[in-house]
Amino acid sequence: MARSPLSEQSAEDIAAQKAARSAAYRSSQTVRNLLIALGVTLLIVVVVVWGVPRGTPAEQPDIDVAQIAADTADAYDVEPLVPDLSDDWRVNFAEVTPEQVVTWRVTYLTPDESDYVTMLEGFGGDEAWASQKLDGAAPEGTTTIDGVEWTEYEIGSGQRDAGYEYAIGAATADGFVLLYGSASAETTADVAAAMSDQITQGSDGAHDAEENAE
Question: What's this model's pTM, rounded to 2 decimal places?
Answer without folding.
Answer: 0.70
